[in-house]
User: What shape does this take?
Amino acid sequence: MKARCLVCCDPAEVDHHPDWQQRDVTGKPRRALCLNGPYVAKVVWPWMTRAAADPACDALEFEIPAEACKPCWCDACMLHMAEAKLNVNDLVVHQQFGFNSVARFRKETAAYAEAVRPGMKVRFT
Ligand SMILES: [Zn+2]
Assistant: This one.
């Protein structure tokens, strides 16, 4: 059995945690959760731990929608970019940061899955 997670799109979490939402350049929230906020550690990884604890589950699949890769201006992203000394006003740099955030999410999530249950199949689509 495969457990599936649609990353960044969780209407209940969006409603409960407006501060975890992505922001556009004007600061307006989007109906998608940011990978650089607490969402991953507070929602995705606990979900993965529960799914991996089920002996019937032999694979995890994470669907990463296009929304997850969009440049985001939330506090967490702005802080990460400032720490990396990236120019937050350069849209190309900002877009690249968005793609890198997804790449980091994949890498960290795969490593976490391996730690939780060694040999577990993890797929990103
Ligand atoms: Zn963000």
